[in-house]
Amino acid sequence: MCYRPVTYGVKAVSMQKRSVRSRITALLGVTTLVVATPLTAQAAPAPLVYVAMGDSFAAGSLVLPAKELLTCARSAVNYASIIAGKLQPAAFRDVTCGAAQTTHFANPQPGIITGTAAPQYNALSPDTTLVTVGIGGNDIGLVGLAVSCVNLLPPGVGSSCKAANTAGGVDKLAQKIDAFAPTYGTVIEEIRQRAPQAKILMVGYPTGIKKGGCWPVVPVWSVDADYLQASLTRLNLRMAEQARAHGATYVDLATPSVGHDMCKGAATRWIEGLIPSVVTNGIVPLHPNAAGLRNAVPTILAAAGLPAPTTA
Known about the structure:
Strand order of the largest sheet: 4-1-7-8-9
Order of helices and strands: HEHEEHEHEEEHHHHEHEH
CATH architecture: 3-Layer(aba) Sandwich
Oligomer: single chain
């Protein structure tokens, strides 16, 4: 019997090797092409355009040096100005104004001494990327409440502001705060319409007075001190609720300011009592001093997702 050498298997193996080499070569070519092709550059972020809105707590009224004195009593070292100094935005418009209410966002505001402040909404533009808003205290009469709580005489000699506001078992101020709350939502939506790409930070109020107060250092009875702070807390709570409901960010200044209320000494307090001190650079009673404005900055920047500076 004769056997022929089997050659077709060798040819098949040879062809298979050539096929593998071709595929490897092709693959290497594709790989080289991918490596050689530059990555598509990501679009640069929009330039920072920062608008600060709000009342005297945001304006830092009369904390020196002043940026504007007669119309809005706006400080050059309010938290917005400090933030702008750190971030160096492409544009910065600070329209915070002492005595402002939410109605002054859409309407002109008579100056504190002279002049007229333009509607605060006018500062917004489609290219605005960051907005801070601190407002509401004047709408619900917060300072007037605080003044009505002052009692120079000891408890029992005089009248209680809590008793006056809760007569008949109804807390009239709480009702006023709750009725005002939806205005925060309206403000957020109006800002978003005018500045659709902006991150909106609703900045709450700091802690004003410690539990039980500190009569006679701050001449407010204990029961009234707690009522005053509870009202401020309620306003902050309503602001936070509306911020969440309307897609804005609430900035809690009350928590970091615990232990820095108006009962503390000049070296510690971030908010002034009824007798302000030039030592703390706090000229307006019941308002933040220079330290209060400065120490608000890290919390606000954190809420904005931005790095916080070192504060003293």
